[in-house]
Amino acid sequence: MSISLRSGQHVDLPSQQRRLRHLRSISARKLTLADEEYTLLDAYFTLHVPGCKQEFYKSEVIRQSLNPNWAALDPHSMVNKTDTAIPAFQIKVWALMSKEFIVVIDWLVDLGALVYVGETVQYKSTADPPNSLIFGMFNGYYAAPPEHYSRLSREALEASLSLKTLTVARSSASRSYSKWTLISVVEACQELSRLRGNILSLKKRIGQRIDSSVVEGNRRQQCEAARVRIRLLRDDLDRQAIQERCESMALEKLKDTVREKASSLKQSQVELANLEARLTDERLKLTSRSNSLFKLNAQASYRRSDLLCQLTRVFPIEMNGERSCILGIKLPDAGSYSGSDDDQVAAALGYVCHLVFVISQILGVPLTHPVSPSSSTSCIRNEIRNDLTGSEREFQLFARTKNRERFSYGVFLLNQNIAQVRPRPQLYSDFGLAVDVPG
Questions:
Q1: What are the strands, taking DSSP E only, across 168-297?
Q2: Looking at CB atoms within 10 Å, which of 79, 151, 165, 365 has the fewest?
Q3: What's the CA gap between 305 and 430, in Å, rounded?
Q4: Which whole-number Å values give the CA distances from 355 to 83, 130, 233, 313, 431, in the listed order?
Q5: Taking residues 106-114, what's their average pLDDT?
Q6: Of 114, 96, 93, whose CA–CA distance to 104 is shortest?
Q7: Is 48 left (phi over 0), alpha (psi -120 to 50) or beta?
Q8: Under 8 Å between Cβ of 348 and 329
Q9: What is the DSSP string of 104-130?
């Protein structure tokens, strides 16, 4: 167990230092003059370094008081160069007598020998001896030990007896006590002894009762502490019971939630199994459809090849010398039309245009430049260029001599359509078809 002490707090240890700088106040109790009754006095005190008559501190004068409480000591009021670390000093209390202040108390005070009285002192107390001093230090009050006052009383008594001793002649001396007076004194002493015994026994019984009351008080205190602990334990037990019920309810709710989730999970698993079965069926159907589509594609490819093969018989292209002929009409070379009739050229281009159109229909390929196959009056359109509008998009594949530039451009567009349907030579080679058209 650790004990923390505040600065300036009394500690009942011999090692605690007590110095002049710790002194806060000085008070007197039952201030009287020698051989006089208690009367109200004007008093002040002075502090001296031991062995020095000159005081280093002088208090204010308290008027008409038996128990003067002087103001707190002001360190700034002390004489300069006063050592406040000294453990002892001389104090003189002066009282007014016949218009002159005389010394009533002259003590050499050792601060380390003072006895702790308490944190407070009474202004008027019958227990204080005459001419007693109280010193304030460390948030408490200190006084001289009781044996100091006993010694002072004994010395004062001896001094008074020595002053009152008289010397008389033996002849003039007489007995001071008679027989019956001595018997009365003896009986009084015996009665006093008996009373002292009764007082001692009474004190013993009072002490026993006090001890028993202390024990009973301790027992009651322990019982009350036990009741408090029991009450606290019961409150703690009730709180734990409530907490346990809350946790049980939360656990039941959690279990219900888990059951619901487990049920929904089972239902989801059943639905997942059904979906997987449906997925398997759909996969089988897709596989079957894929196979059917593959067969249909194969049949369509075969049918296209057959149609293209038949197309070679509808539009036969044969070699006549160095030039090719289509349906017996010679095909001129592109850009070289010398020695060719315009009608023959128009008819040949019309057949080629019709052939390209039919091939695009068989292959399912839309032509880049739409054509209007009309034998010797065929036309081709350019839908790509944005600078052409209306009838300017249509180019004739006849009347070569009337507008040669538009005719040549139409032949150029027709060659682009031929190049568009040429990248699939497999369909042609399977049936021995020609890949391109000469010229």
A1: none
A2: 165
A3: 7
A4: 138, 154, 108, 11, 17
A5: 88
A6: 93
A7: beta
A8: yes
A9: EEEEEEEGGG-EEEES---SS-TTSPT
CA distance 170 to 159: 25
DSSP characters over 56-76: EEE-PPEEEESS-BPPPP-GG
First and final CA of the chain: distance in angstroms? 120
What letter would DSSP give residue 10? Answer: -
Phi/psi for 116 (5° steps) reads -70, 125
User: For residue 424, what pLDDT band results from cuts at 50, 70 and 90?
Assistant: low
pTM above 0.85, yes or no: no
Buried b (16+ CB within 10 A) or exposed e, 4-20: eeeeeebeeeeeeebeb
Length of the chain: 439
List pLDDT tens digits, range 348-387: 888 888 888 888 888 888 888 888 888 888 888 888 887 7
Residue 210 CA to residue 267 CA, distance in Å, equals 84
Tokens representing 340 are 């060719």
Under a CB-based contact definition with an 8 Å cutoff, are residues 398 and 372 in contact? no
**Region of 9 on the Ramachandran plot (φ > 0 left; ψ -120 to 50 alpha; else beta):** beta
Residue 243 confidence (pLDDT) = 94
For the chain, percent helix, then strand, then coil, each to nearest 5? 50, 20, 35
Q: Indicate the residue type of 128.
A: D
What one-letter code names the amino acid at 384? I
Q: Which residue has the higher pLDDT, 401 or 257?
A: 257
How far is residue 130's CA from residue 153's CA, in Å, rounded to a whole number? Answer: 10
DSSP 8-class letter at 305: H
Q: Please list the residues that pair with 136 across neighbouring strands.
A: 25, 141
Torsion, CA 117, CA 121, CA 126, CA 132, rounded to 10: 60
Residue type at 282? E
Reported confidence tier of residue 150, pLDDT bands at 50, 70, 90: low
CA-CA-CA-CA torsion for 400, 401, 405, 406, nearest 10 degrees?
A: -50
User: Cβ distance 363 to 352 under 8 Å?
Assistant: no
C-alpha distances (whole Å) from 88 to each of 17, 248, 289 are 12, 77, 124
What's residue 168's pLDDT? 46
